[in-house]
Design a protein that fits this description.
Order of helices and strands of chain A: HHHHEEEEEEH
Structural class of chain A: alpha+beta
CATH superfamily of the largest domain in chain A: Winged helix-like DNA-binding domain superfamily/Winged helix DNA-binding domain
Strand content of chain A: 15-25%
Largest interface: A-B, 39 and 39 residues
Oligomer: homodimer
Largest sheet of chain A: 3 strands, mixed
Number of strands of chain A: 6
Shape of chain A: globular
Bound molecules: manganese (II) ion, zinc ion
DNA sequence: ACGCTTATTTGCAAGCCTTGCAGGTTAGCA
DNA sequence: TGCTAACCTGCAAGGCTTGCAAATAAGCGT
């Protein structure tokens, strides 16, 4: 995801307006590696801007995802997680605390046993226990 | 997942009853490689047994999953998919038709960039276009 | 600075999938 | 055949996300 300043420019160029709510979310997301849910972002945003609505959080997240600035990831935990890192990488989720960490794989695993399937992307999710929860 | 006959025995031994509804689901699931959702199973079950309730389908699916006879997989498509194949394998989902196919990988991809994470399982989902939809 | 137009924000209702609950029903066993 | 615990069904409700409409405000031209 680009910087708040660059995003503001991009939004205006797309005919979208740059509101205080959106700017706040730009800041909360930029460089954020915690893979927060909409709910968590709403809580954070509410601290800085009491009264902001959950609906607006979802709206802005969807706008950013549509622009390719953000990816929405479903780990099957009930709510979607959002990731401003849209470069190719994979994830590891802790079974204990639910934290999601970025990981990289040496090379994409080779798929066997299925002919004629045109692979566009391979999503890998490691499940286990993170360093913090192990101690 | 074991055969309907074996499952019936296992259910009784666990103090669970073997009802016509459960037997029907045993049959619908045994050897099923289509990764159906509860909804799809409910539709199939309703054909053979009009009046069966969606609640009962969910109940039986949960029972089987709890017994380790079935796995529930969330591909982020809204509803869970159920798989009577509980041996280690991976999946490929078609972006066009939503079909899920079983695949195998040569060897588990090596995780980089995260120290101290104890990996219990690695889930891989290939996204792309299946042979049928390509033509 | 001012007013206009159009996008945005909000609050609430509703949609989708799944589970909780309660009352009538039935499997399993003596 | 009868008892009792487990089950089935229908419906309500819970969690996450989106649709909708009225009030609000950003961006732009003057
Ligand atoms: Mn990430
Ligand atoms: Mn499978
Ligand atoms: Zn942890
Ligand atoms: Zn297909």
């Amino acid at each position: 995801m680009r910087s708040p300043a660059e995003l503001s420019q991009a939004f205006r160029q797309s005919g979208l307006k740059v509101t205080p709510q959106r700017q706040l979310l730009f800041r909360l997301l930029h460089g954020n590696t915690s893979h927060p849910s909409a709910d968590v972002l709403f809580a954070l945003a509410s601290q800085a801007m009491p009264g902001i609505s959950l609906r607006t959080v979802y709206q802005t997240l969807n706008d950013l995802a549509l622009m390719g600035e953000l990816q929405s990831i479903d780990f099957g935990t009930g709510s979607a997680r959002f990731d401003p890192n849209v470069t190719e990488h994979q994830h590891a989720m802790c079974n204990e605390c639910g934290a999601v960490h970025d990981v990289f794989v040496a090379d994409e695993p080779k798929m066997l046993g299925l002919d004629g399937f045109d692979v566009h992307a391979a999503q890998i999710v490691y499940h286990g226990v993170c360093a913090g929860c192990a101690s």
